[in-house]
């Protein structure tokens, strides 16, 4: 039985404004609560750097909280480690939002000199590589399994691959049988735009970078208590909805 309050936060994708408001609300609702960031902190939205700063600060202040590595975060980690080859850089830039993420560091044209961009980030924000290098692929708390993308059906939890846990989609989403744990995940935006409860999983990616709705699930004693979701007014003020 899991006794503590746990919050799982879905894909942030560069929306530091939404994450800041959500973390402030969580801090007021349960100051001792554990936060599990489900990954994909960066790309798409306008302030990837700011999101990483917020998460790093939260983890320093709340060492029980955890960060999972999303597939977008993987690109930045590999880039900062010098492990991303030319084809990886091209893929990140063309399909996954590298330009916007690196511009949030004040780099106007990252692709003109990738190595110079890497040196800028490492010099100005060395904690960001430390943050991503320390991220996990899966966190299990009692009957709950927290993961970025999902699990491969038919594979024991101990044998799940990092690639599947960061990238899997249809094979996981179409599976209707229990995985042995209730899986809490992001990665695949929900069709409804709301947090969704399925028989074997809870989905929390609500397209925050586009919709303004960053979602979190709160668990008490291992059981779902409620959802939180950010809202944005026409003048840009961020509020919090309590769902369920």
TrEMBL record:
Highest taxon, organism lineage: Bacteria
EC number: 3.1.3.16
Enzyme class: hydrolase
Segments forming domain Calcineurin-like phosphoesterase: 5-198
GO biological process, one term: RNA decapping
Keywords linked to the UniProt accession: Hydrolase
One function term, GO molecular function aspect: protein serine/threonine phosphatase activity
Gene Ontology annotations for the cellular component aspect, listed alphabetically: cytoplasm
One Pfam family here: Metallophos
InterPro entries named in the record: Ap4A_hydrolase, Calcineurin-like_PHP, Metallo-depent_PP-like
Name of this protein: Serine/threonine protein phosphatase 1
UniProt organism field: Aquamicrobium lusatiense
